[in-house]
User: What shape does this take?
Amino acid sequence: MATIGGSAAVESLIETALRDQDHDGTIRWHAITMLHARGDLETFTAARRLCAGDSAAERMLGVDILGRLGFVDRSLPVLRFLAASEDDRMVLYSVLIAFGHLRDRRALPSVIALGEHVDPRVRYGAAYALPNIMGSPPDPMGLAALQRLAKDPDDDVADWARLGLALSTGGEVDDVGGQILDP
Assistant: This one.
């Protein structure tokens, strides 16, 4: 693991998150949540360094921290760089989820481009992000990308895109059973 260069508390939380090999693991996300709660520049700097890490696990952790930390103006360039240069599909998925959480329209070109990705998990991330960043009224290019994803051969991608279209255009959404709509 790369040395992050932060305080012992930040380093410890990062090490804890990296030890949990499950991307959706409870221990990993507890550590990430604690880093989000810090909401400080030290945590941002550590996350940004992770985004340049040697391993996909480091880069994905950095992205997952940036996605809900705040610092939108500082995080977007890092995430957009990764969106254009990253090869790992799980890192790209995390980038797209982070874009969705940051809710900034400036991510739209990156998300539209990744909506054409060969991997369905990446397209799923794009379908999640688009309704969150298209703005109001929705950007026409974003809507067109979401409409393409609604016809995706992967059912999960298509379903999420159709939900996003309904939410973005003020349409009716069938019963979602009170579920939290967050991947």
About this structure: Residues 75-171 form a domain with the Leucine-rich Repeat Variant fold (CATH 1.25.10.10). The two ends are 27 Å apart (CA to CA).
